[in-house]
Design goal:
The protein contains nine helices and eight strands. With about 210 residues, the protein is of the alpha/beta class. The longest helix is centred in the C-terminal third of the chain and has 15 residues. The structure holds BIS(adenosine)-5'-pentaphosphate, magnesium ion and zinc ion. The site of BIS(adenosine)-5'-pentaphosphate (AP5) has 35 residues, from helix 1, helix 2, helix 3, helix 6 and strand 6.
Amino acid sequence: MRLIIVGPPGAGKGTQAESIIEKYQIPHISTGDILRENIKNETHLGKEAKKFMDHGDLVPDHLVVALIQDRLSREDCKNGFLLDGFPRTVAQAVALDAQLKKLGIKLDRVININVDDDLLIERAVGRRVCKTCKATYHVKYNPPKEEGVCDIDGGELIQRDDDTEKTVKNRIKVYHEQTAPLVDYYRAQGLILNIDGSKAIGDVFDQIVKGLA
Ligand code: AP5
Ligand code: MG
Ligand code: ZN
């Protein structure tokens, strides 16, 4: 299965990705996670990306396109993948199409998670992420058994640097301006699977599984 998951910040892309990759046994490729890893390791890419991510702006297309070209050419993507947070501009989608054409493969579906803006801020600001395994929690909607501690591996739960109300508001604005046009781009290819992301986490996953069947 070759899938893309798109939606505004805090829509639940990463949360659903955790269940999707387990069910379909495909790698989860999140450009946000890869960029944050680069920031942590203080790579050249990380230093460049940080300037944009701290404000909630998009990292320039050429940097993320190069990153994805490298990632998709690895062995584990042979039988499928789930792209989360990429593409994020029409230019990135065009670059991805060109690469897939070269590889002789096609996308199966683009999962579009719809959530109204007013729900997104609360979701992002209340998010907590495991420092070790990156599992995602929410203080109200998906709390860990013990506050501040990951259920899976006991890792420390932290807040992302860009999950402040001010930065989230800018990320939502950037989404509407630069990423929402992707939905029309993929609708024209007949690939869009619309999902109501305002429902509970398990319900959203059920909609996805039904839609992909
Ligand atoms: P990225 O990491 O992709 O962030 P994002 O798109 O802003 O999305 P989020 O990860 O914030 O939200 P999500 O949809 O994954 O929600 P989650 O499941 O965690 O990108 C970060 C930055 O990197 C960008 O701003 C940009 O600078 C840069 N970047 C990345 N890719 C790029 C690209 N291709 N080009 C250029 N720049 C790029 O859920 C959120 C919270 O809600 C959690 O607490 C969760 O528990 C809770 N929750 C989830 N589902 C539900 C539900 N159904 N009900 C209640 N709560 C829920
Ligand atoms: Mg995410
Ligand atoms: Zn963990």
